[in-house]
Amino acid sequence: FAVLCRGSIVGVCYGRNADDLPTPDKAVDLIQQHNIKYARIYDANIQVLKAFANTGIELMIGISNSDLLPFSQFQSNADTWLKNNILPYYPATKITYITVGAEVTEAPNNESALVVPAMHNILTSLKKLGLHKKIKVSTTHSLGVLSRSFPPSAGAFSSKHALFLKPLLEFLAENQSPFMIDIYPYYAYRDSPSNVSLDYALFQSSSEVIDPNTGLLYTNMFDAQIDALYFALMALNFRTIKVMVTETGWPSKGSPKETAATPDNAQIYNANLIRHVINDTGTPAKPGEDVDVYIFSLFNENRKPGLESERNWGLFYPDQTSVYNLDFSGRGAVVGMPTPNSNGTAGGFNGTTKTWCIASSNATQLDLQNAVDWACSTGNVDCSPIQPSQPCFQPDNLASHASYAFNAYYQQNGATDIACTFGGTGVRVDKDPSNALFPSVQTLLHRSLCLGSDAMHFLNCKLVYFALQAMITACI
C-alpha cells in the first residue's frame, strides 16, 4: 500500500559511455549527496552493483540488446545470469526493475522478436526465486514506437510494430509492469522549430494547445507525449498499463546548429520537469496520475557518437562539478523568465511586483466549483483553511473560497501566467485583493473593536485588529 501511494518519483540515469568518469563509489556518493533515491544503469556491472549496496537507492538495471538472443533461446541462460548478477548483491542493492533490451524498434538489427521471449525467461527465473513481485520486468521504447502523437487523443502505435507490441502489452498488463518510454521534447523542438515553440518544450508556455477531439488543454510537450501513449494504449484496450519515463532531459551544449542546447535551457527544462512531476499533477488526460521519471543523465559521456549534444546531456562533469544548479526536491520556484506585467515589471515572486490570482467575476458557479475541486485535489492545495469554522471560511461564498484556492496554487507554482488560468476562471491582479474581498469583515473589525474611548482598551483593540488583518491577508 505504501508503494502504491508513494507519489511520483524522479531518478537519474547513470550512463558510463565515457573514459573519464569517476569510480562507481564516487558516482554513487554524488547521487546520495543530491538526495536522489532512484537510479537507472544500463547493465549489471559488478562494481556498480556493489557501489549501490546499502544505500537505499532503488535501482533499475538493464540487459543489453546484444544479450537478447541467448536470453530468449534458453531458460538456463536467464537462470544463470540472475544467479551470477543479481542474487549476490540483492537485497543489499535494492533492485526494483530489470529492463530487457532498449529501444529495440530503433536498433539497426531487428531484434524486437527476441524481447518478449527474453522477458518471459527473466520473469520465470525471478518466480523461481520468489522475487517476481519485488522486481518488475519491462523494456524501454523511443517515441518512434508511435505512428502518430499529435493531437494526443489521436496517439497510435505504428502498425509495423504490431507483431511485437501485442504480446508485449499482454505481458505488461498481466504482470502489472509499466510501459517504459524515453521522451525528449528537445529533439521535437530541434528538428521542427517552426512547429514546436521552445517555451512549450521547456514547460514555460503561457498559452495552451487544445486537443480538438477532447478539449484538453496542454501547456507543455512532455504531458502531450505521455498522453499520446495513454491514448494509444487505450485504443488497443490496455487501460491498466502505467507509463514510466525512463529517459528525458536536455543537453547543455551542442553543435553550431543546435542553438537550443545551452546550460540555461537544460536547467530550465529539468528544474521545471522535476517540479511538475513532484507536484503529482499528472497529465490532462490522467490528472493526479503518478509519472515516474528518470533524467538523462548523471554525467557527460565523451564516447557517445553523433552530434556534439550527444556528449553533453550530463548534470555533472566527470570531475563531479555541476554543469548547472538543479534542485531535486522540486520545491524551488519554476525556473525561467517571469512574464512581464502591463507596466513592464515582472510579476509573482520572481520580480519586483507582487501579484495574486483570484476568481474571475465572469466565471459561472459550476466552472468555479470544478476549478476549486481540481485545485484542492489534483492541484495539491491545502484547502483546510476554507472549511467551516476555519480561519478563511468567511466570507462563506464560492468566489472567496475559489480565490483562496487559486492564489495558493498560483503562489506554489511560481506565480506565472499559466498557473492562474483554471480554465478561464482565474484572473491575475497586482493589488492586494483582501480589502475588496473582505469589506464587511474589515468594517466590522474597525467599528466593533476599535471605537472605544479608553486609551488602553483602544490599544488592545488595535493589536487585535492588526492580528486579524494579517489573518485576512493570509487567506489571500
TrEMBL record:
It is an enzyme of class 3 (hydrolase). It is a lipid-anchor; GPI-anchor. It catalyses: Hydrolysis of (1->3)-beta-D-glucosidic linkages in (1->3)-beta-D-glucans. One of its GO terms (molecular function) is glucan endo-1,3-beta-D-glucosidase activity. Signal peptide: none annotated. Residues 355-438 form the X8 domain. Keywords: Cell membrane, Disulfide bond, Glycoprotein, Glycosidase, GPI-anchor, Hydrolase, Lipoprotein, Membrane, Plant defense, Signal. The keyword Glycoprotein applies. The keyword Cell membrane applies. It is found in: Cell membrane. Its main location: membrane. One of its GO terms (cellular component) is plasma membrane. One of its GO terms (biological process) is carbohydrate metabolic process. Belongs to the glycosyl hydrolase 17 family. This is glucan endo-1,3-beta-D-glucosidase. It comes from Linum tenue. The lineage of its organism: Eukaryota, Viridiplantae, Streptophyta, Embryophyta, Tracheophyta.
